[in-house]
Amino acid sequence: MARNGTNKGTPSAFAESGIKSVVADLKNEIAALYGSDQTPWVIGYSGGKDSTAALQLVWLALSDIPIEKRTKPVYVISTDTLVENPIVALWVSKSLSKMGEQAARQHLPLTAHRLTPRPENTFWVNLIGRGYPAPRPKFRWCTERLKIMPSTHFINSVVQKHGEAILVLGTRKAESAARARVMNRFEAKRVRERLSPNGGMPNSFVYTPLEDWTNDDVWMFLMQVANPWGFNNKDLLTMYQGATADGECPLVVDSSTPSCGDSRFGCWVCTLVEKDKSMQAMIQNDDEKSWMLPLLELRNELDPPKTADADRPLRDFRRMNGAVQLFNDRPIPGPYKQNVREDWLRKVLKAQRHIRDNGPEEVRDLELITLAELEEIRRIWVVEKHEIEDSLPSVYEAATGLPYPGGRIDDNLVMGAAEIDILRDLCGKDALHFQLTRELLSIEKRHKSMLRRAGLFEVVEQAFFRNFYDDEDDAIARARQHRDDLDDVQERVLEERSQIVQKPLDLAVGEDER
Q1: Hey, which of 94, 329, 352, 419 would disulfide with 368, CB 3.0 to 4.6 Å?
Q2: In this predicted model, what pLDDT tens digit does every residue of 230-265 receive, in sequence order?
């Protein structure tokens, strides 16, 4: 659910002819557009007011079309990032289920689809598994993986099957000046009436029935026109009201009155905003939602103060590939350290346990992190990061008090706790020596059963490249020396080139003088 814009300076779409006339005209337009070809429709639904209003318009228009002419499929897609605000995620899940039931009962060619990112692309797999730092404006790794890729994959599958697709969205020009500019730019490129080209996806078009509506127009429509799949839109209003700081949705009497719903619903882990104001307001406005407090606290822990060194102690001095990269003569921090990743997992599982123990009945089975994600994190730790002690099951059991539900891992990939303890004792306080030895043992265990050991020398070389330093200070000193050596080489190359250029010039001058 996106942030809602204000209505200042934007006239109501209902001002001239009234809401009934505008809605009737839009229903006729939708019905005509639906019947004009065989291109399937894909409706984006987030559970927010704009996407609800757009879907409601399409649903009402389809209901007016004779059953025998409802031949073109309409797909309703909702992308669940798996880190959505739990209240909103429950709302959307129930709504999609209800849509499926009612569409079948009303003989509509509409199916609802909940999309999720692949396990290797989820938030926790990347943060806890790979050690990516919490997203920030200059490293916004989450949006593409969690939101764009699942919907793009679905729409591409529709295009491959049918040749084209029409994407129906609830976007509005009044949301923001930036949104208006984008919509106007694509509107100028329309080749069919009301259908804009989809800039990032060939053979697909975008239809925005609410493009000229204001925030208040949307609420007026939702409050005056009953939801056709059986949900009460007043419950949606209540959810927005609960996510507003003052807990009020005032009666709008003029353009100076703040409209209801100026809140942002999204991922509860989002660190790209300064604060999760909607979750904070939900907890503040309703004591029964205090069970969400651990989520807010964990989100705030993920978002360190906006200073250069805020999360440096949590992160490795090496980049993901083991290289030491300098910026302003200091190493750029790499992924989260092993103990930090284990700690994030522990905190997520404890928050999940708290919600299951203290939340209402509807969240007693809530999964903040799925088994598929846990198994992928475990694979990354053991196989890619060579953490062969296989600590994830023990972290899970300690945090939840339950046996780990995942399967056994290949014995050729792991080492027992007793052996790891002996290795730690032998290496003493030399963490890099421990990591190098552990990685070499991991490589040996993985390759000993292979008939062909292609690539063995390369992975051994990479292990030494990552871990051969004496310590962090030694790694930084080597990186600085490497940088200085490169600078010296570049200076010599430039000097030699200038001499090569200067020599013919000197010869030419000498010839002229003779």
Answers
A1: 352
A2: 999 999 988 887 776 544 443 333 333 334 444 557
